[in-house]
Amino acid sequence: MYTPVKASDAGDHLNVNVKGLIYDGEKLAVDFEVENGQPAQAAYIWLRSLKLNDTEVWVEYCSASEESRKLVPDPRLDELPVDRNPVSCMLQACAALSGKTDCEMTFVVERPNIGIVFIEDADKEDTDEAYLAELADRRAAFAAMENVIVSDTEHRNADEWAKEGYTVTYNGIPDNPETLSETAQIVIRFSFDAASGDYEYAPKEDISLANGTLRINRLRISPLTTSISLTLFPTDNSMDSAEMLAEKYGSLYLTDDNGNSVVYSNMDYLEENTGFATETNGHCAVQWYFDMPGLKSFPDTLVISSDGGEMYRFDLK
After folding, report:
1. What is the pTM of this model?
2. Does residue 287 contact residue 230 with C-beta atoms inside 8 Å?
3. What's the pLDDT tens digit per position in 56-77?
4. Same domain, 178 and 292
5. 286 Cβ contact partners less than 8 Å away, ≥ 6 residues apart
6. Residue 302 belongs to a domain with what CATH number?
7. CA-to-CA separations, 82 to 16, 97, 211, 218, in angstroms, rounded
8. Residue 21, Cβ neighbours under 10 Å: how many?
């Protein structure tokens, strides 16, 4: 369940506004915005740390991380219209929480020592009107920034700009972050109730399939995670049969009751797995691991399907 949050702070003309969060018992996702109060002077921001109950936790994904510093206004090339200022961001972290939880997010603001050079490397032969409109929109966004130079490799390459101390970028993320200097630190603190809900759907009993027995080790469906682990034991406990079943069932898919593929949220992509034959505790088996982001919407019924047909059908709570 989405929990609204009202917490914000600012530093060096950049304001960070935390809008809300979701906690599912294993993962925490926080939704926040960054706005530049002086948009003509572009600046970078990134998350330095996340603390929960005074303990720093590992952030597995952040759209404004040290590795992918966020330039504000955001010049990214995207389907129009683009929200360039303020910029919507999110982070996701693994955490075991319960009850009242104190959260502390620390951000770093950085500005270029000399200036930013945007190297335009677009396909100039492309005639698609939508693509050309996006290019023009991005170019205009950069041109509106007084501390940005728009260039291309035909006139001067990136190495030449970098040798002079300019911050070089092709897409907003700096190629040489050592040319940036920290100008402010923003610390935001708030508390929330870590109520997780019940997202576990694995049945307690094994399931009989043709030529084997299916065991669902993990079946977790939450707004943040779609995680499935299956083991299929062939009836005759032979490796030849396990390999045959692995080929028969192949990859896993999650569909609704009508056979339509589910739609996942736009969080980090994890892994979609194809079954493989293996041996576990003296038993030949086929193993699947299926890890994807959470669902955008939750139908009443979900079906674990495969290349070989339906494997398990269950209702959401």
Report:
1. 0.84
2. yes
3. 999 999 999 999 999 999 887 5
4. no
5. 212, 231, 232, 234, 242, 245, 246, 249, 275, 276, 277, 278
6. 2.60.40
7. 19, 35, 52, 39
8. 22
